[in-house]
Write a structure and sequence with these properties.
This protein has about 180 residues and is an all-alpha fold. The protein is about 60% helix and about 0% strand. It is built from 9 helices and no strands. Helix 7 runs antiparallel to helix 8 and helix 7 crosses helix 9. It starts with a helix and ends in a 13-residue tail after the last helix. The N terminus is likely disordered.
Length: about 180
């Protein structure tokens, strides 16, 4: 979730609603990027650092899955559009919500990353299970695994800003990042 501050806040278009919407578009609750610009800029830098060395398609799948789990509509909008623009299939994006029932859509490495994303995002047990970590470690070099953990952590932070501030989805266009 790395767009400019104006885009980050989900500022509505002139029409005030997303395409096909029946209800008025809610305004964001808080323009945190404008009110805490140093934090926003640090998040953008952290996001850029976390993605280094990771496959862009895998990274978008991870960001979409974490955003699904965290119910961040703004990030779902952004990362689904970015994934589609990068050539990802609609089918794989849609199936991501039920990846355990449709593992044949993903590589073993992608499945390990998706499973790790869930474990890091939903810490209901208070820890990431050894089996989940072990499967990820079997598919990623240590440095790449460290970057993956960083990327999962960063998208979770972006999700929390998006959900708390109720950033408005529907206006993001692929390539608006930075």
């Amino acid at each position: 979730m790395t767009t400019t501050a104006k885009q980050e806040t989900g500022t509505p278009t002139a029409s005030g609603t997303a395409a096909g919407a029946n209800a008025p578009e809610p305004a964001p609750r808080l323009d945190w990027a404008a009110l805490a610009p140093d934090v926003y800029k640090a998040m953008v830098r952290l996001d850029a650092a976390s993605r280094k060395g990771l496959d862009p398609t895998l990274l978008e799948l991870v960001k979409i899955r974490a955003s699904q789990l965290n119910h961040c509509a703004f990030c779902l909008d952004m990362h689904s559009k970015d994934a589609l623009a990068a050539g990802e299939s609609v089918e794989r994006i849609v199936q991501l919500a039920a990846w355990e029932e449709s593992p044949h859509f993903y590589t073993e490495k992608e499945l390990a990353a998706i499973e790790l994303t869930e474990a890091v995002t939903v810490l209901t047990e208070g820890f990431v299970p050894d089996e989940v970590y072990g499967r990820a470690a079997a598919h990623f070099e240590e440095a790449e695994l460290a970057q993956l953990v960083a990327a999962i952590t960063v998208i979770n932070a972006w999700n929390r800003f998006g959900v708390t501030c109720r950033l408005t989805p529907g206006h993001y266009r692929p390539g608006q990042q930075h």
